[in-house]
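Dear colleague,

Thank you for sharing your sequence with our group. We've completed the structure prediction you requested, and as agreed, I am returning the results in plain text so they can be pasted directly into your records. Please verify that the sequence below matches your submission; if there's any discrepancy, let me know and we will rerun it promptly.
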Amino acid sequence: MTRIAVIGLDGGSLDPEMQSVVREASLVVGGRRHLDALGVEPERSAALVGDLSGAMGRIEASEGPVVVLASGDPGFFGIVRLLGERFGREGLRVLPGRSSVALAFARAGLHWDDALVVSAHGREPRRAVNACRAHPKVAVLTQPGFGPAELARELEGWGRSLFVAEGLGGEGERCFRGDAATVARMEWRDPNVVIAVDEDRPGEGKGWISSGSESPGRWALPESEFEHRSGMITKAEVRAAVLARLGPGPGDLVWDVGAGSGSVAIESARLGAAAVAVERDGESCERARRNAARHGVSVRVVEGEAPGALRDLPEPDAVFVGGTGQRFEEIVKHSAVAARRAVVLTLISLERVVPAAEILEGCGMDVETTLLQASRVSGIGSMHRLVPETPVFVVTGRREGVAA
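Please find the predicted structure tokens below.
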């Protein structure tokens, strides 16, 4: 039996069915602005504030029908999840309004079947930021304290244009399109939705799955898939092990230090992560940019020498160190201090393996070291032989209690 009706409000007037449901309810629960807008009497209303425990208790104690007011489509990053978990799905009747995300894309004149939708509302916002850095079209549901200006500041330098839809459906609705630097300087009112678009790759073409989240299909790609200099590239077999230890995915940020061709950064981006490739050689930086464009992913290429070039980068989830030069210990320590989850190094020299492990352990990481040696079959006339690749030590540091 239906006991709780959940009504989505989108700035328009309630239809007769919704009006009847609200009028007959013993208790109406919602944000203060929704309760005030509908003129609900104080004696039969409860505000959704704080951790919502007070409102949930009122619903549980109510002996008559209950209405819960929400914004837009309450089944989309909304209160339907909580109500279903607390009171059971069979007791809910959901009457949705227009989704704020759908309205925002309509105001922007953009199709959104290839868009990613993320929420920073009631959540730590860094994963939403990283999604915007990685994907070409993202809608962000913001929260008080992390609105358009705060998001824009995190996206400066990432080549994103922003569309802000503020107060959708209401009398004070405002829409604005601009670059991140402009949006960061402006003041905004809640509620709002922000769309971040990479104008260089605004869409992924006609697909069959929404949000552009289709699997890349292949990973640990052969070296021939990347332009590189004189074999200076992490080999596919080693790259497979590195990616498995980095664990890149949507919402993550990966640093590729000493990136060379950028193969690890690019593969991380293909798996959904935001990626920064740091490389001191200008020609290699250009190759990395061309490789990223070839694979249709967004990789921020930073030309500079580590560890100095790392100091102003956003906080990474995982760091790959493929090249260190003379400042080996400084780079490893800086990477270990910065990384939230993991640091992975590939080393050829045995003399660097033990110091690397000691530095990672000293930064509170659990360390694993593996020697990888692969051989490829090569033809000699009508015969075949094994051609060994250079042995590589893979040194991995992980934070205890943090998933890979």
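Summary note from our side: The first strand starts at residue 4 and ends at 9.

Kind regards,
the structure core
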